[in-house]
Amino acid sequence: MAKGKIPVRKCTGCGEMMPKKEMVRVILTPEGSIELDLTGKKNGRGAYICRSRECLEKALKTHGLERSLKAAIPEEIAKQLMAEI
Prior knowledge:
Elements: E1 8-10, E2 17-19, E3 23-28, E4 34-37, E5 45-50, H1 53-61, H2 64-69, H3 75-84
């Protein structure tokens, strides 16, 4: 039997394509808050980041995360994301 396709996503920090399950999803909820989605099933617009602090720092510095989510990321949310990763 043939195996199904493995979904891949692009990291907003380093730009590398990786399997979806190996990445962390950051979402913009319908209420407008930004949070980490470790399950990958929460409702909202999502952006993916590698599980490394360097990728998150690069995504915040180059505004890749803001472009993907189409929303500005407040400083306190950025600090919270850094602490959680």
